[in-house]
C-alpha cells in the first residue's frame, strides 16, 4: 500500500498523542445542532467505541441540559468503557474566592475524574473581556487549578486565544501556561480559538512552547477551522511536539467548525504511523462518523475524506481493467481500513469489464455469464438514453444486475397508486395518497398524508406494508433531488429523481426517470425500499448465524 510514514524527528519510539473529543461541548456550538440529554448520552457511547482517551461531556452549570447530562452520567447511566469523561468550565471570576466560585462548584458537582478548565492567555482578552489586570488573570488560573487538584481532579488547561496572545505578548502567554503547569495541570492546551492561524505559524509557536515546557507538562492543541486548516494545524502541532489533540466528530463546531477527528485519526495512524487507535477501532470510523451525524440530524458529507460515500468512488471507464488488477494504484489507502468501501460508478462509457467488476463489488460473479453481462450493458445503455444515470445510483444498478441474472427477490409488487393535491380556500396545501400493493399473494392498501404528493405516497406505502414488512420503519429517505432533463420541453420535460436512503447502518442511492415527477419519484422510492428490505433481510440472516 502507498502509505507514507514520515518519522518524527525525536529519537526512540514515537510518542502516541492523546485524543480528546469535544463533540458534545464545542461541537454542539454549531448553528442548528440541538441535542437532548438522551442524544448526548448516545453520542458519548458511540464515540467511546473509537478508543479516544477523553470525551468532554459539556459545561456543567452553564445550562440545565449539561448539568443533567453529568448528573445522569454519574448515576451510572453512562458507563464509558475506554474514554475518561471530562467536564469543561472556566477559571474563577476576578477577585473571587475559588472555594465559593459557582463555576468551579458546578465542575466539582459534575463528579468527573478529569476537568478541562479554560482561561485567558491573550492580554487583550484579559483587559477587554475579563476587565481585570494581567496579574489577577494569572492568579485566577493558578488558584482555580489548585482547588480542582486539591479535590482530586485531573486537570487539563485550555489556553484560550493562545496563538493570538502569543503573537501579542509571548512572555505573558507563556506565563499563563507556567501558572497552569505549576498549579498542577497535566496538560496545557494551546487554543486557536479564532481559527485564523496557518500551519507555518502554528508549527513555529508549538515548537517554541514545546522546547520551553514539554519536559514539565504535556502540550496539547485545540484548533478551529476558520482558514480550513484545522486538521493541517493539528498535524503540524503533533509533528512539532504536541502530545494531545482536541477535535470533534465530523469537524462540527461553531462557525466553520473544529479540527475533524474523523480525518485526524487516520491521518495520524496511516500517514504518520502513530497508533492513536487500534486497527479494529479504525474500522469503525465510517460507522461512528455516520451514526453521530444521524443522531445530530445532519446529512453525512458524501465527499468527506476517508468516510464519505464518495471517498473511494471511481469513475471506471478507461482505467477499469487496471483498477480491477490493482485498486491501490487509484486510491491512497485501502478503504476497508476505515470501514469504508470502494465504489465503481457506472456510466455510458462503461464497457463489459466495468459491469463485471461492478458485479464483483456487489458479490455477483458475472464473468462466467457473458450473456447476462451483455443484457446488463444493453439495459444500461437503453436506460441512459431515456435519462437514467447510474453513477449516483448504485442501488438501482444493483437491482438491474440482479434482475438480469435471476437474483432479484421481489418483496412487494405495486398494483396502483393515486395522489391528490388540494389547495384549500385558506391557501393550505394538503396531499393525500393511496397505494395498492401485493406482498406475496396478499393485497394491501394504505393511505397517507404528507406535505407534498411524494411524501404522501411514501406514507401510504409504509402504511400498506408495515405489518408484513416491518423493516420499512427503519428506512429513511434522507435526500431527494429532482432534475429536469430537457429544459426546452417546459412542463412536459423528463424528470430525473435521485433518492438517498439510510437505515442507520448503510446508505444507498436510487434513481427514477419519467415525464411525470410523481412517477419518477415512485420508481426511485421503489428501488430504495427494495434495497433496504434486502439489506435488512441479509442482516437478519447474518445475525441468526
Ligand atoms: Zn473551541
In short:
This protein has helices at 37-48, 64-77, 102-109, 123-130, 134-150, 162-168, 170-182, 199-213, 230-239, 261-271, 279-282, 285-295, 320-325, 352-361, 370-385, 394-404, 453-465, 517-544, and strands spanning 18-21, 54-58, 84-90, 114-120, 154-160, 187-192, 218-223, 244-247, 313-315, 343-345, 413-423, 429-439, 442-450, 476-484, 495-502, 507-514. The chain is of the alpha/beta class and 545 residues long.
Structure description:
This protein is an alpha/beta fold and 545 residues long. Helices cover 39% and strands 20% of the residues. It has 18 helices and 16 strands. The protein has helices at residues 37-48, 64-77, 102-109, 123-130, 134-150, 162-168, 170-182, 199-213, 230-239, 261-271, 279-282, 285-295, 320-325, 352-361, 370-385, 394-404, 453-465, 517-544; strands at residues 18-21, 54-58, 84-90, 114-120, 154-160, 187-192, 218-223, 244-247, 313-315, 343-345, 413-423, 429-439, 442-450, 476-484, 495-502, 507-514. Helix 1 crosses helix 2, helix 1 (37-48) runs antiparallel to helix 12 and helix 6 (162-168) packs across helix 7 (170-182). The longest helix has 28 residues, at 517-544. The protein starts with 17 loop residues before the first strand and ends with a helix. It binds zinc ion.
